[in-house]
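Sequence decides. Consider this:

===
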Amino acid sequence: MVILNAPGADAAATGMAQEALDAFAEGLDGRQPGLEVVELAANIANAALSHIPHPEVAFDVDGALSFDLRTASGYLIFAELTTDGALDASVYDAQNNLTQRMPSATAVELTAWFRYSSQTG
């Protein structure tokens, strides 16, 4: 089990993210992520919890882990991590205009958006 650790993060959001991460780690229909992918998911969730006031992290019916994040500055970040480690993300501005599409995102790119969007407004 990988435990989320985001000091200062909202306790309810952290609890929900932990439940989603645990479900993702268990897998679905024979598709289970490896430990490296689960750790990647935890790193992204910790970054989201550290930079976004109330991130929504959810286990999807297709077995992926999704991140729906509205930043304090109004950016909306959608991301999905599949059990094979593929990370797909999109960023929208406060007017819901697509700012950036990242079909093969890295955790570094995604967490940079978390930091950037939490500091701009």
Summary: Strands lie at 56-59, 65-70, 76-81, 87-92, 98-102. The two ends are 37 Å apart (CA to CA). The CA atoms of residues 28 and 62 lie 8 Å apart.
